[in-house]
Structure formats: structure tokens, C-alpha cells
């Protein structure tokens, strides 16, 4: 059966961040993810995970200045040392939180810079990060993000992401397949899931995320029939986590009918 992780950046925003761990556990989640942990000491977060019986299954490497609109720097020329220093910090958090994957955001493509140059920086940084992470037993994830949601984002389509991962060839470099972004940008979700999970043991998909399309609310709303996709993912042998990276339409717990049905069936 699919395993779901609450995204504490987007869910339970009616609570303070540190109170969201308890709220997720109370609703029956056994795992969490979020964008960034760096405002809090790793030991504080680890203690909350232990207290509430939760696993940390994903967070992002530092994106640089998020509040100023930056969305990662992995593909940005001249920022290589900043990216690498940030990734080392992320590895330190991953060790304390016992979190196996770190997501590295590519960033916004700067105007006037040749795409081939950006790709060269991106692949070099990812190869370095994957090598650095391998000794720590950590995976590095990259995510195609729909241009509607982050205009100018460097990586948008599944085929390109898989080509980059294949070219680098690091066994711990994987894809974060966000089905919301995939549907918005290119669609054909079931075919892509079948293609990229054809052999679950050899698959380059390291994590899924979901949200209803187009409003990005609960996965039982909108145009995508997620129950079909969840069954398909299960059928194909995926045993990783599915992150619930959505904005609840109202209070988080009120919209968890879909999750309670899954829990009852499981």
C-alpha cells in the first residue's frame, strides 16, 4: 500500500511549525516532509520526530534567498561554492534527522545565459553532491517543476530530468516525481508512471508528491483521479513515500477524508 507523508510546510499552517509534528501524528501520519529545516536546530526537530513517532522522509537543500524569490541555485553559474556549502549543511541535518533523501532545487534560469552553460553547472553540481552524499547513505533528488507555478524554473519536464540522471549515472541520484507539476506541465500521468516505474528496483524515481489539480488542494479534488494512480504505483512495486504537498482547502484535518479511507483500507 502507498505510504503518505504530511508536508509540514503546506499542511497544518493553522499551527506553528513546531506544533505541526504533533498535529500530523494525531491525524495518523507516520512520516513528514517539509521544504527547509534550517530555522530550527536539527536536534530540536529530531526530538519532535522521536516524541511523535514520525520519520523524516524529505527536505530541501538551502535555496539561497527564498524570501527574495530565489528557488535554488544548483544550475546557477558563479554560485557553485554557495551550493556546495549549503549541501554540506543539508547533509549535517540529514544525519541528525535520519533522513535518506535531500532535494536540490535547480533555480531560476537567468536571462541571457546560454542553457547549455546552465546545464553544465547543474550536472557538475549534482555529480559532486551525489558523490558527497553517497558515503553518508543519502540520496540526492531533482524535481521538474511546472512553469505555471514557478515561471523561469530551469527544470520542467520528466524526460529531461531522467536524461540528466542517466548521464551522471550516480546510483543515489533520483527523481522527485511531483504528479501535480507533471500534470500541469505535460500530463499523461499513468503512462509516465508506468514508464518510469517499469522496474521498481531499478527505477530512478526516489519520491512522489501529490496535490489536486488545478487548485493544489487535497488529492481527492480536481481533475486527477489519484486513487487510480495510487493503485498503479502500488501495483508497480514502489515502496517509497508519497508526500502530500498540497494546500488544504480549509483546516487540514477537515480535508483528510481521503487519507482516513486509505488508512481504513490499509
UniProtKB/TrEMBL annotation:
<dbReference type="GO" id="GO:0046487">
    <property type="term" value="P:glyoxylate metabolic process"/>
</dbReference>
<dbReference type="GO" id="GO:0008903">
    <property type="term" value="F:hydroxypyruvate isomerase activity"/>
</dbReference>
<dbReference type="InterPro" id="IPR026040">
    <property type="entry name" value="HyI-like"/>
</dbReference>
<comment type="similarity">
    <text>Belongs to the hyi family.</text>
</comment>
<dbReference type="InterPro" id="IPR050417">
    <property type="entry name" value="Sugar_Epim/Isomerase"/>
</dbReference>
<dbReference type="Pfam" id="PF01261">
    <property type="entry name" value="AP_endonuc_2"/>
</dbReference>
<feature type="domain" description="Xylose isomerase-like TIM barrel">
    <location>
        <begin position="21"/>
        <end position="261"/>
    </location>
</feature>
<feature type="active site" description="Proton donor/acceptor">
    <location>
        <position position="143"/>
    </location>
</feature>
<dbReference type="InterPro" id="IPR053398">
    <property type="entry name" value="HPT_OtnI_isomerases"/>
</dbReference>
<protein>
    <submittedName>
        <fullName>Putative hydroxypyruvate isomerase</fullName>
        <ecNumber>5.3.1.22</ecNumber>
    </submittedName>
</protein>
<dbReference type="InterPro" id="IPR036237">
    <property type="entry name" value="Xyl_isomerase-like_sf"/>
</dbReference>
<keyword id="KW-0670">Pyruvate</keyword>
<dbReference type="InterPro" id="IPR013022">
    <property type="entry name" value="Xyl_isomerase-like_TIM-brl"/>
</dbReference>
<feature type="active site" description="Proton donor/acceptor">
    <location>
        <position position="245"/>
    </location>
</feature>
<keyword id="KW-0413">Isomerase</keyword>
